[in-house]
Amino acid sequence: MRITRAVPLVGASTVSVVVPCYNYGRYLPQLLRWVVDQPGIDVEVIIVDDASPDGSGDQAEELAADYEQVKVIRHLTNRGHIQTYNDGLEAVTGEFVTLLSADDLVPPGALSRAAALLSAHPDVGMVYGYAPSFSGEPPAPNASVRNWTIWSGYEWLRHSARRARNFISSPEVVMRTAALREVGLYDPGLPHSGDLDLWLRTALHWDIGRVNGPDQALYRVHDANMHLTTFAGTLLDLHARRTTFDLLFTRHARRRADIARLRPSVSRALAREAGRAITLGQLDRLPLEELQPLADFAVDTDPFAPQSRQIRRLRSGRRLRQPGFTRFFLQLQHHLRWRRERRYGI
């Protein structure tokens, strides 16, 4: 890992912004106002409307008449989010590319900061940063740059394996288009974890960079994307991540012994997270039988999971002895992890 001083963007760069849209046309005007406000960047915006029934496609066409940087692709029938992503990504012409959901935002200057890092470090294939979540009106974004971090691809993969998590929300990522062409588009077989799969594949071939300090995107939280806060969503997310890492080991990096050595770390991390979810379920007084699928997942993922305290307690039918202390500890643990990821990106 290298911490380097951030330097300004030298010369002009072209960034293609792919905006998949389904019934989110009302968010497009503000998105475009911010996207085009990028010093030193020639912006190409490709809005892909997935046959929205609410008139979002017409709104996109009207905005394209006002912004010369915008072009619109319209699906005649709904093709789903992965195909919508890929149709837009296949059409890009810029040196760099970002995928920005229509309800999210990229602050003024964020693309310039990412392009500066990519231009200064030609071995970096992907740049990200901090992306705070919001609901309602977006907050004023922080634009102060502290420094840059550069990881080798393997080093970044090692950190990902140790936590088996996706550190990235998605709208804050800017990729080198050459890297995207090399590693390929979103995998239709991974509807719940296609972004994580793309980041992992990129790190197999390219270094990874991060702009530290500013808000590189704003991630909107509303009812349509809060499914992972539910118990069923947690289990779905765990299964999706396990499948994604399995593909890394068995398909994308099957001949790399250094990557294969990371597999036990992934198994342990996923099983630990399932154990924490069991503890949270106990704190919420869920019936023990409803928590059994999490235990089954942990045992199936990590051979040492049956020895964990959460699994033993669940199998014996015992409840938590100190629920207040346990909840405090989990909240503290979550806060410390958030602080680390906020500052360091891993």
Overview of the structural elements:
It is a single chain. With 346 residues, the protein is of the alpha/beta class. It folds into two domains: 2-222, Spore Coat Polysaccharide Biosynthesis Protein SpsA, Chain A, CATH 3.90.550; 227-344, no CATH class. The chain contains 13 helices and eleven strands. The strands form two sheets. It has a nine-stranded mixed beta sheet, with helices on both faces. Strands 7-11 form a two-stranded parallel sheet. The model has no long low-confidence stretch (mean pLDDT 93).
Entry keywords:
single chain, 346 residues, alpha/beta, Spore Coat Polysaccharide Biosynthesis Protein SpsA, Chain A, 2 domains, 9-stranded mixed beta sheet, 13 helices, globular, Glyco_trans_2-like, Glycosyltransf_2, Glycosyl transferase family 2, transferase activity, transferase
Helix content: 40-55%
User: Helical stretch count?
Assistant: 13
CATH topology of the largest domain: Spore Coat Polysaccharide Biosynthesis Protein SpsA, Chain A
Rg calc: 21 Å
- Give the H and E element order: EEHEHEHEHEEEHEHHEEHHHHHH
- Strand order, main sheet: write it out: 1-8-10-6-9-5-2-3-4
Q: Report the biggest beta sheet as strand number plus sense, adding barrel if it closes.
A: 9 strands, mixed
Instruction: Please write the CATH class name of the largest domain.
Output: Alpha Beta
What would you give as the CATH superfamily of the largest domain? Answer: Spore Coat Polysaccharide Biosynthesis Protein SpsA, Chain A
Domains, number:
2
Based on secondary structure, the structural category is: alpha/beta
Oligomer: single chain
Task: Indicate the CATH architecture of the largest domain.
Answer: Alpha-Beta Complex
| Rounded average pLDDT | 93
Strand content is 15-25%
Number of strands: 11
Distance from N terminus to C terminus (CA atoms, Å) equals: 12 Å
Low-pLDDT windows of residues: none
Global geometry: globular
